Structure to design on (515 residues):
């Protein structure tokens, strides 16, 4: 899921200083699990804004905020509340925020969160990054642990000289990705994979802005 | 004699290291380099070591060449992508630089520009392959070069890395990628190093034992605590302590000279790489006491 972190409320207030009334959009997916854009957070932001003398014309929790078309349809029932607002505040990720930008072409849209990474939830509201969305998966060659993400240097062929009893030189809080990979490969009898030199990554596979249209072929048929 | 020829001649080779300074005043480093001239077989020039921004390694290598030194260009993958690395390698080649040490490089987190974007487009093993390719007249994409390079390429290894197995597997990958010589991370336990060498001798590469000058018991303790892959045995720490504060540096020089002598006399490895870390002026004395001068 996409991991988000609530921005400082004072900073948000500064950003929205020019406007009086707002419509708030959360998200039932990632932002709800991150505690940054679910039902309770929508209610809390509404209260906080009102305490600052702002007006909240309405709140809405879309099923999936980054699903632009679906969110647009869901927002139809809040047409009047949206129209009454000077601006929109989106309590999800950068993708959800930009869904709103598309849905509201003539209104300013403000993010209430910072978008951090694609994460795994390890325990309730604890997340870590395991995939960097690099565009060409190498997990089959690295024992299922991604060194592009787990190693601060993104090394592909083994640990650097900074590995220290299983810890990383960058921080003792980080496990050395290559020691983890070595241990796992050993456990699953795949140490042969370690011996193979991986070629430099093809970074053109993760060039921005990425697009994907899996409908193309189907359309051509029609 | 070139560094490559010296190693191939079977001579016990000595390299030392200079770190270009931060800023354009190079009087001190030129003086230190001058002291080592004619004594060491080659001088490593570090590449923004510890991720601290300094004078570029290529430029300083060129200065050393003009002064009649044999430089080893250290090249890390931290600050340049594959285009920059290859371009600088070609540039180093036309300046007459013949030796290159391929490393991944300390993370910016260790240095003085912590907010820098770490590059690591490729890493040490892949960089060695790139150098081999340039030597064969091809760039990384297989494009023909108009004129190939002729680098003697080296790499680093940490014989006391813990756990050791993944480190050794990477060492073998570096050899496969084209490394001709290795300069090791600092070693202090010669018996342990002998074990490493009995393994490393299976491969057709030259090995220079890395030696860091101990200046005090405090420094030894600090390295044990904070520098990955370095272990200073207790008996050496005691030796430094017993020497007392004023004589600690002298004791450190004695330890290194003793180690060099043993490594040479027992033909344990092909040479040594002396890292004096700020005390480069002591290198001639170390070599003298080791019986090398």
């Amino acid at each position: 899921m996409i991991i988000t972190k609530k921005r400082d409320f004072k900073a948000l207030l500064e950003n929205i200083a020019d406007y009086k009334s707002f419509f708030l959009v959360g998200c039932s997916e990632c932002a709800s699990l991150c505690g940054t854009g679910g039902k309770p957070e929508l209610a809390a932001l509404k209260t906080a804004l009102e305490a600052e003398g702002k007006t909240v014309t309405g709140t809405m929790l879309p099923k999936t905020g980054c699903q632009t078309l679906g969110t647009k349809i869901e927002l139809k029932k809040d047409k009047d509340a949206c129209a009454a607002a000077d601006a929109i505040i989106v309590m999800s990720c950068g993708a959800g925020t930009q869904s709103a930008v598309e849905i509201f072409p003539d209104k300013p849209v403000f993010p209430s969160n910072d978008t951090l990474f694609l994460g795994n939830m390890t325990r309730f509201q604890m997340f870590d990054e395991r995939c960097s969305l690099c565009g060409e998966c190498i997990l089959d060659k690295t024992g299922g642990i991604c060194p592009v993400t787990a190693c601060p240097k993104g090394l592909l062929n083994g640990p650097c000289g900074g590995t220290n009893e299983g810890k990383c030189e960058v921080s003792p809080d980080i496990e050395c990705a290559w020691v983890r990979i070595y241990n796992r490969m050993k456990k699953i009898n795949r140490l042969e994979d370690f011996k193979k030199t991986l070629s430099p990554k093809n970074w053109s596979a993760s060039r921005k802005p990425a697009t994907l249209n899996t409908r193309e072929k189907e359309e051509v048929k029609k | 004699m070139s560094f490559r020829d010296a190693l191939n001649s079977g001579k016990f080779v000595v390299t030392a290291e200079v770190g270009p300074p931060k800023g354009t005043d190079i009087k001190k480093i030129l003086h230190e380099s001058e002291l080592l001239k004619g004594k060491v077989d080659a001088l490593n020039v570090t590449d923004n070591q510890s991720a601290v921004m300094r004078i570029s390694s290529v430029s300083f290598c060129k200065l050393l060449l003009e002064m009649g030194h044999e430089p080893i260009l250290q090249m890390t993958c931290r600050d340049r992508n594959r285009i920059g690395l290859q371009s600088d390698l070609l540039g180093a080649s036309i300046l007459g630089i013949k030796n290159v040490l391929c490393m991944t490089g300390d993370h910016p987190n260790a240095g003085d520009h912590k907010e820098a974007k770490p590059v690591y487009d490729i890493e040490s093993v892949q960089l060695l392959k790139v150098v081999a390719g340039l030597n064969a007249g091809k760039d990384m994409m297989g494009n023909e070069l108009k004129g190939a390079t002729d680098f003697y390429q080296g790499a680093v290894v940490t014989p006391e890395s813990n756990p050791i197995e993944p480190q050794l597997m990477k060492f073998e990958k570096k050899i496969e990628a084209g490394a001709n010589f290795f300069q090791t991370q600092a070693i202090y336990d010669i018996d342990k190093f002998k074990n490493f060498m009995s393994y490393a001798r299976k491969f057709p590469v030259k090995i220079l034992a890395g030696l860091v000058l101990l200046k005090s018991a405090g420094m030894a303790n600090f390295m044990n605590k904070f520098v990955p892959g370095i272990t200073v045995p207790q008996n050496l720490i005691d030796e430094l302590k017993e020497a007392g504060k004023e004589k600690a540096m002298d004791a450190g020089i004695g330890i290194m000279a003793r180690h060099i002598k043993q490594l040479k006399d027992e033909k344990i490895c092909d040479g040594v790489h002396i890292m004096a870390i700020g005390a480069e002026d002591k290198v001639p004395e170390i070599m003298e006491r080791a019986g090398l001068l």
